[in-house]
Amino acid sequence: MATSKAQKRLSILAALSAILVWAVPAGASHVLCGDTLTTDTVLDSSLLDCPGNGLIIGADNITVELNGNVVKGADAPGSVGIQISNRIGVTVKGPGVVERFEGGIDITGGGQNTVKDVTVANNKLLSCLPVIPPGPRGIQIRNSANNRIKGNAVVNNCRGIVVVGPDSQGNSVRENSSTLNFFFGILVRNGPHNNEIKSNTLTGNTGPGVSLAQNVSENEVAENFIHSNTLGITLQGNADRNRVKENVITNNGALGVRLGFDGPPFPVVSDNNENEIRENVIGNQITGIFIQDVSDDGNVIKENTFFNTPTPISDAGTGTVIGDNVSD
């Protein structure tokens, strides 16, 4: 009988041990500045004043949990907080902070990676120049497809979130807050297509809340709150067949949406066709929607609502379809 009870106790203890091991599948790991991670990793402490890169992702299909910690650089030129190069299926998730690098989190090549619930802040050198990337930025996707950037706070960087390169397609940038960045809240530039910019909050950026520039096509900018930036949304430099819909665009300097202007330091190319600007709420602007260049044609401006906007629509383009807009 005694032996049976002892065996039962041992069985219970073994079962409890198995449950505990299952509940914590991977213990927190101690990593150092510049480490290359090749397995699932949960940070056990912060990385402070990294002289170069913070962390480098060295394998596909791994998860890195910041676990409430800080990855902090030393403002070194060329440094990156978390570098994901030519990787597939990587997840970087917060809560946690990445700050004081030239680039906060960079995804280059590869695809199907996720960055979520991370605060990316203060990634700016003494000068934010040049305006055109590369340069200091918060989160960047470069020539990479089908990534998901979701639920992050991107604050006080030179550029907030950047999607760049002709191979950047199918990316989703959703439910992020991009605020108080020096140039752009979100910049989509130099060839990206079929990307989704949706349900983000873009406020207080010294530049456009969202900018689509230079051969960008078939991207959707939808359901964002765009408030108190220098400009609301800009489309320029052969921006074709993009959709700007159901955004709330208020108090952004003089212009809510500007389509068809380029000037230094961007190449002066202004031919932006067949874009749809519809079902937006635009208010407290001098001009709501400004189609600026006469070469722009085939654009659609429909079903927008304007309030406290002396000039709801200013159209210098050709063949613009305008209809069913409402203004007070």
What this model shows, in words?
This protein has 328 residues and is mainly beta. It has a single domain, classed as 3 Solenoid (Pectate Lyase C-like), CATH 2.160.20.10. Helix content is 7%, strand content 40%. The chain has one helix spanning 2-23; strands spanning 35-37, 41-42, 47-50, 55-57, 63-65, 70-73, 80-85, 91-93, 97-99, 103-108, 114-116, 119-121, 137-142, 148-150, 153-155, 161-164, 172-174, 177-179, 186-189, 196-198, 201-203, 208-213, 220-222, 225-227, 231-236, 243-245, 248-250, 255-259, 276-278, 281-283, 287-291, 300-302, 305-307, 311-315, 321-323, 326-327. The strands form three sheets. It has a twelve-stranded parallel β-sheet, with no helix packed on it. The termini are far apart.
Provide a short characterization of the protein structure.
The chain has 1 helix and 36 strands.
Which secondary structure elements does this structure contain, and how are they paired or packed?
Blueprint: H1 2-23, E1 35-37, E2 41-42, E3 47-50, E4 55-57, E5 63-65, E6 70-73, E7 80-85, E8 91-93, E9 97-99, E10 103-108, E11 114-116, E12 119-121, E13 137-142, E14 148-150, E15 153-155, E16 161-164, E17 172-174, E18 177-179, E19 186-189, E20 196-198, E21 201-203, E22 208-213, E23 220-222, E24 225-227, E25 231-236, E26 243-245, E27 248-250, E28 255-259, E29 276-278, E30 281-283, E31 287-291, E32 300-302, E33 305-307, E34 311-315, E35 321-323, E36 326-327
Parallel strand pairs: 1-4, 2-5, 3-6, 4-7, 5-8, 6-9, 7-10, 8-11, 9-12, 10-13, 11-14, 12-15, 13-16, 14-17, 15-18, 16-19, 17-20, 18-21, 19-22, 20-23, 21-24, 22-25, 23-26, 24-27, 25-28, 26-29, 27-30, 28-31, 29-32, 30-33, 31-34, 32-35, 33-36
